[in-house]
Amino acid sequence: MGIEDRGTQVDGNQELSSNNEFLLARGPVGRLAVGELATAPTLGVEEEFLLLDPHSGQVVPAAPELLGQLDGASWAKGELMRFQFEAVTDICTGLGQLRAELAAHRRAAAALAEGFGCLLVAAGTAPDGTSGPAHLTPSARYLELARRSPSLMNGSGTCGCHVHVGVASRELGVQVLNRLRPWLPTLLALTANSPFTGGRDSGWASWRHRMQARWPTARPPPVCPSAAAYDTVVAALIHRGAALDAPSVYFLARLSPRYRTVEVRIADVCLDLEDAVLLAGLVRALVATAIQEVDDGLPVRAAPAGWVQAAVLAAARHGLDGPGLDPWSGARASQRSLLDRLLDHVQAALAQSGDDQEITALIRRLDQRGTGAARQQAMRASGASLGELTAALARATLAGCTEAVARVGTTSGGTAGDGSITRASAGAGPGGVVAVTSLNNTNQELGIVS
Do the domain assignments include residue 383? Predict the structure, then answer.
């Protein structure tokens, strides 16, 4: 769920900064000159993982033991359920730094989990399902959530990937959110990684979203003219009992209640490292593009709330390879065409940050390998048992992490390849191809050819 607890083990987003700030890595608050955009916004990522039995695939409530072994490490957190483990990065200025931190955390957490007889798995839902409130983390805040919403505890314990991007002010953050809303469905489509529940295919690419959407505030953010108006909406939700407090207003993208960031929360946790880096790079580019639009005085393009919500549901149901909905017109559109539109939309921001070639390569990789949901479904269709699927998911979670060396193309200077980044052109430009070598043989994980 990504709920920020204020207890001793689960402590909000303290990992994002040691001095309680999360700033843009650029100039002061105010109108941004074009030259200032040479430095991209800072970013950080929270990843939630499952702890599963290696034979049955059932959840293992071992997170407190793992956290105890880490002795208060700032990057490791508990979550709503004791079979969930959260890893969080520091403030990062580039995708290379982010990749290194994500890899180190996955590697360390998996090693600890193995010591307690379980596997660390990056999946939005446990393939065999969860046991409801039996494994609730007994913090005061989670116990109060369970008291207020007991029916919502069944099926909880889903895992997401939350991307924080620094903004210069909360006023700017609200304007960024207004522009992010229509792109949220596409981010969900490309990260969908939770097709199973109770040992069966749910019929959804992201069953996690289906479970998350039961919470009354788990919706796209409203369009607000100012930070004060946004705060009024949040206060009203709390007042009428739709949320316990500001951290439990679960908008799919929101102003962080603690830091000066925009927090995009819609994605399932990504099956492997490179998909998480792709998500973070695209979110940062969307935020940077929105900031530039605000700076240029461009109006927000209207996207009715009903159409945005319908587009989110289509993405959750069908994933990246199915039908979608254009959130601006309400017309049917393929999810792939909507992804191409997103890539075209952020092309300038990716070029400015120097991330364009890397994102190109990662899009091509996603095309070749498929989303996490598609890979899980392919493995299950091949006749794999739940135990075999769990083992394959655990291998994929560590692919590119264990004893890995990442080689990325030039990221300085902000130069772009020729033409826009599209699925057709992905990887075609010179340089910038990401190659990851590992001592583990992971080429056949989940039955997908690399």
Answer: yes
Report how many helices (DSSP H) and strands (DSSP E) the chain contains, helices first. Answer: 14, 13
Q: Which domain holds residue 403?
A: 14-441
Residue 131, CB-side half-sphere exposure with 13 Å CA sphere: 14
pTM of this prediction exceeds 0.70: yes
Which amino acid is residue 13, in one-letter code?
A: N
Structural domain count, the chain:
1
Is 212 within a domain? yes
Give me the mean pLDDT over the 306-318 stretch. 98
Does residue 24 sit in helix, strand or coil? coil
- Ordered DSSP codes for 92-145: BSSHHHHHHHHHHHHHHHHHHHHHTT-EEE--SS-TT---GGGGB---HHHHHH
List residues bridging with 45 in a β-sheet. Answer: 163
Sign of torsion over alpha carbons 332, 334, 340, 343: positive
**Is residue 447 one of the residues assigned to a domain?**
no
- The amino acid at residue 301 is R
The SS3 of residue 154 is coil
SS3 421: coil
Nearest to residue 91, comparing CAs of 47, 41, 48?
Answer: 41
399/309 Cα distance (integer angstroms): 34
407 to 79, 95, 437: CA distances (angstroms): 33, 12, 9
Helix (H) or strand (E) holding 196: strand 196-197
Q: In 3-state terms, what secondary structure has residue 183? A: helix
3-state SS assignment for residue 28: coil
pLDDT at 31: 43
Query: Which 3 state secondary structure label does DSSP give 276?
Result: helix
Q: Which residue, 413, 290, 423, 411, is CA-closest to 345? A: 290
Confidence tier at 311 by pLDDT (50, 70, 90): very high
C-alpha to C-alpha distance for 184 and 142, rounded to whole angstroms: 27
Assign residue 339 the CATH number of its domain: 3.30.590.20
Q: Where are the alpha helices (DSSP H) in 296-417?
A: 305-318, 335-345, 347-353, 356-369, 372-381, 386-398
Q: Which has the higher per-residue pLDDT, 441 or 352?
A: 352
Q: What is the pLDDT of residue 49?
A: 98
In a domain, 5, yes or no: no
pLDDT digits (tens, 9 = 90+) for 73-82: 999 999 999 9
pLDDT at 132: 72
